[in-house]
Amino acid sequence: MDRRQFLESIAGFSTLVPGLALLPVAAQQAFAGELHARARSAAALRTLTPAQDATLGSIAEILLPESDTVGARGVGVSRFIDLLLTEAMLDAERDKFLAGLDAIGARSQALYSAPVALASREQQQSLVAALDAHLPARAPTPAETRALATAPMTAERGYATLKQLVVLAYFTSEPVARGLIKAPIIPGRYDGCVSA
Fold first, then answer.
1. Which of 17, 34, 99, 113 has a CA-to-CA distance to 23 between 20 and 30 Å?
2. What are the structural domain ranges in the chain?
3. Could you give the CA distance from residue 13 to residue 185 in angstroms, rounded to a whole number?
4. Is the pTM here over 0.90, yes or no?
5. Which of 90, 14, 75, 80 has its CA nearest to residue 48?
Protein backbone atom coordinates (compact mmCIF):
# COMPACT_ATOMS: atom_id res chain seq x y z
CA MET A 1 0.00 0.00 0.00
CA ASP A 2 1.37 3.39 -0.91
CA ARG A 3 0.89 6.71 0.87
CA ARG A 4 -2.10 7.72 -1.29
CA GLN A 5 -3.97 4.47 -0.64
CA PHE A 6 -3.32 4.81 3.07
CA LEU A 7 -4.66 8.38 3.18
CA GLU A 8 -7.73 7.28 1.20
CA SER A 9 -8.35 4.51 3.74
CA ILE A 10 -8.17 7.03 6.60
CA ALA A 11 -10.55 9.36 4.75
CA GLY A 12 -13.05 6.52 4.29
CA PHE A 13 -12.66 5.45 7.91
CA SER A 14 -13.33 8.93 9.20
CA THR A 15 -16.91 8.76 7.93
CA LEU A 16 -17.59 5.93 10.40
CA VAL A 17 -16.53 7.90 13.47
CA PRO A 18 -18.39 11.15 14.18
CA GLY A 19 -16.27 14.29 14.07
CA LEU A 20 -13.11 12.52 12.97
CA ALA A 21 -13.43 13.75 9.38
CA LEU A 22 -13.19 17.31 10.69
CA LEU A 23 -9.75 16.72 12.20
CA PRO A 24 -6.48 17.09 10.31
CA VAL A 25 -4.92 13.83 9.14
CA ALA A 26 -2.21 14.11 11.82
CA ALA A 27 -4.91 14.24 14.51
CA GLN A 28 -6.64 11.23 12.93
CA GLN A 29 -3.34 9.36 13.09
CA ALA A 30 -2.87 10.38 16.72
CA PHE A 31 -6.38 9.08 17.46
CA ALA A 32 -5.50 5.74 15.85
CA GLY A 33 -2.21 5.55 17.76
CA GLU A 34 -3.98 6.18 21.08
CA LEU A 35 -6.57 3.53 20.21
CA HIS A 36 -3.81 1.00 19.43
CA ALA A 37 -2.12 1.67 22.77
CA ARG A 38 -5.33 1.15 24.71
CA ALA A 39 -6.32 -1.90 22.63
CA ARG A 40 -3.01 -3.60 23.50
CA SER A 41 -3.82 -3.32 27.18
CA ALA A 42 -7.50 -4.36 26.90
CA ALA A 43 -8.26 -7.33 29.13
CA ALA A 44 -11.19 -8.71 27.13
CA LEU A 45 -13.47 -8.07 24.18
CA ARG A 46 -16.08 -5.41 24.84
CA THR A 47 -18.30 -5.43 21.76
CA LEU A 48 -17.38 -8.38 19.53
CA THR A 49 -18.62 -11.81 20.51
CA PRO A 50 -16.01 -14.59 20.45
CA ALA A 51 -17.52 -15.87 17.17
CA GLN A 52 -17.39 -12.40 15.58
CA ASP A 53 -13.83 -11.93 16.81
CA ALA A 54 -12.84 -15.28 15.28
CA THR A 55 -14.46 -14.32 11.96
CA LEU A 56 -12.74 -10.93 11.97
CA GLY A 57 -9.36 -12.39 12.93
CA SER A 58 -9.51 -15.12 10.28
CA ILE A 59 -10.39 -12.70 7.49
CA ALA A 60 -7.82 -10.14 8.67
CA GLU A 61 -5.13 -12.82 8.56
CA ILE A 62 -6.18 -13.83 5.02
CA LEU A 63 -5.95 -10.18 3.95
CA LEU A 64 -2.68 -9.41 5.74
CA PRO A 65 -0.94 -12.68 6.64
CA GLU A 66 2.25 -12.93 8.60
CA SER A 67 5.21 -13.47 6.29
CA ASP A 68 8.58 -11.79 6.55
CA THR A 69 6.52 -8.91 7.98
CA VAL A 70 4.07 -8.86 10.86
CA GLY A 71 0.52 -9.96 10.06
CA ALA A 72 -2.85 -8.57 11.05
CA ARG A 73 -3.10 -10.71 14.17
CA GLY A 74 0.42 -9.75 15.20
CA VAL A 75 -0.49 -6.05 15.39
CA GLY A 76 -3.78 -6.65 17.23
CA VAL A 77 -6.22 -5.71 14.47
CA SER A 78 -9.18 -7.41 16.21
CA ARG A 79 -8.61 -5.64 19.55
CA PHE A 80 -8.24 -2.29 17.79
CA ILE A 81 -11.51 -2.78 15.91
CA ASP A 82 -13.29 -4.00 19.06
CA LEU A 83 -12.24 -0.86 20.94
CA LEU A 84 -13.18 1.33 17.97
CA LEU A 85 -16.63 -0.28 17.85
CA THR A 86 -17.06 0.16 21.61
CA GLU A 87 -15.90 3.72 22.07
CA ALA A 88 -15.90 5.62 18.80
CA MET A 89 -18.47 4.41 16.29
CA LEU A 90 -22.05 5.54 16.11
CA ASP A 91 -24.48 2.88 17.33
CA ALA A 92 -26.03 2.53 13.86
CA GLU A 93 -22.63 2.03 12.18
CA ARG A 94 -21.55 -0.43 14.87
CA ASP A 95 -24.77 -2.42 14.45
CA LYS A 96 -24.31 -2.51 10.67
CA PHE A 97 -20.73 -3.72 11.04
CA LEU A 98 -21.75 -6.49 13.45
CA ALA A 99 -24.62 -7.51 11.16
CA GLY A 100 -22.11 -7.65 8.29
CA LEU A 101 -19.80 -9.90 10.31
CA ASP A 102 -22.74 -12.17 11.10
CA ALA A 103 -23.73 -12.24 7.40
CA ILE A 104 -20.19 -13.30 6.48
CA GLY A 105 -20.36 -16.03 9.12
CA ALA A 106 -23.71 -17.19 7.77
CA ARG A 107 -22.28 -17.27 4.23
CA SER A 108 -19.40 -19.46 5.39
CA GLN A 109 -21.82 -21.75 7.23
CA ALA A 110 -24.00 -22.06 4.12
CA LEU A 111 -21.07 -22.72 1.77
CA TYR A 112 -18.80 -24.86 3.94
CA SER A 113 -20.96 -26.01 6.87
CA ALA A 114 -18.46 -24.30 9.17
CA PRO A 115 -17.91 -20.87 10.66
CA VAL A 116 -15.16 -18.83 9.00
CA ALA A 117 -12.62 -19.58 11.72
CA LEU A 118 -13.16 -23.36 11.42
CA ALA A 119 -13.24 -23.49 7.61
CA SER A 120 -10.10 -24.69 5.87
CA ARG A 121 -7.55 -22.12 4.73
CA GLU A 122 -8.57 -22.77 1.10
CA GLN A 123 -12.25 -22.23 1.97
CA GLN A 124 -11.42 -19.01 3.82
CA GLN A 125 -9.40 -17.76 0.85
CA SER A 126 -12.21 -18.68 -1.54
CA LEU A 127 -14.77 -16.83 0.59
CA VAL A 128 -12.59 -13.72 0.81
CA ALA A 129 -11.90 -13.80 -2.95
CA ALA A 130 -15.63 -14.04 -3.69
CA LEU A 131 -16.43 -11.15 -1.34
CA ASP A 132 -13.50 -9.13 -2.69
CA ALA A 133 -14.85 -9.55 -6.24
CA HIS A 134 -18.00 -7.70 -5.18
CA LEU A 135 -16.25 -4.62 -3.82
CA PRO A 136 -17.56 -1.51 -5.55
CA ALA A 137 -15.28 0.03 -8.15
CA ARG A 138 -16.11 3.52 -6.90
CA ALA A 139 -17.48 5.22 -3.82
CA PRO A 140 -21.29 5.33 -3.77
CA THR A 141 -23.05 8.53 -4.72
CA PRO A 142 -25.00 10.35 -2.01
CA ALA A 143 -28.25 8.88 -3.38
CA GLU A 144 -26.77 5.37 -3.35
CA THR A 145 -25.52 5.93 0.20
CA ARG A 146 -29.02 6.92 1.34
CA ALA A 147 -30.51 3.83 -0.34
CA LEU A 148 -27.89 1.55 1.23
CA ALA A 149 -28.64 2.99 4.69
CA THR A 150 -32.07 1.34 4.66
CA ALA A 151 -31.11 -1.81 2.77
CA PRO A 152 -30.53 -5.04 4.71
CA MET A 153 -26.89 -5.79 5.49
CA THR A 154 -25.22 -8.30 3.22
CA ALA A 155 -21.99 -10.23 3.51
CA GLU A 156 -20.57 -8.17 0.63
CA ARG A 157 -21.32 -4.81 2.28
CA GLY A 158 -20.11 -6.11 5.63
CA TYR A 159 -16.88 -7.28 4.03
CA ALA A 160 -16.28 -3.86 2.42
CA THR A 161 -16.40 -2.17 5.84
CA LEU A 162 -14.41 -4.96 7.49
CA LYS A 163 -11.64 -4.68 4.91
CA GLN A 164 -11.49 -0.92 5.32
CA LEU A 165 -11.17 -1.20 9.10
CA VAL A 166 -8.59 -4.01 8.90
CA VAL A 167 -6.43 -1.95 6.54
CA LEU A 168 -6.72 1.09 8.79
CA ALA A 169 -5.93 -0.89 11.96
CA TYR A 170 -2.96 -2.58 10.32
CA PHE A 171 -1.33 0.45 8.73
CA THR A 172 -1.78 2.70 11.76
CA SER A 173 -0.17 0.18 14.11
CA GLU A 174 3.28 1.10 15.39
CA PRO A 175 5.15 -1.94 13.98
CA VAL A 176 3.81 -1.27 10.49
CA ALA A 177 4.05 2.52 10.57
CA ARG A 178 7.68 2.37 11.71
CA GLY A 179 8.85 -0.83 10.06
CA LEU A 180 7.04 -1.06 6.73
CA ILE A 181 5.90 2.38 5.69
CA LYS A 182 9.24 4.00 6.64
CA ALA A 183 8.10 7.37 5.43
CA PRO A 184 6.17 10.01 7.27
CA ILE A 185 2.55 10.12 6.21
CA ILE A 186 2.63 13.88 6.70
CA PRO A 187 5.77 15.54 5.38
CA GLY A 188 7.64 17.66 7.88
CA ARG A 189 7.64 20.76 5.76
CA TYR A 190 5.97 22.26 2.70
CA ASP A 191 7.42 25.31 1.04
CA GLY A 192 5.11 25.66 -1.97
CA CYS A 193 6.26 28.06 -4.64
CA VAL A 194 9.32 29.82 -3.38
CA SER A 195 11.95 31.50 -5.42
CA ALA A 196 15.46 30.18 -5.10
1. 99
2. 3-181
3. 16
4. no
5. 80
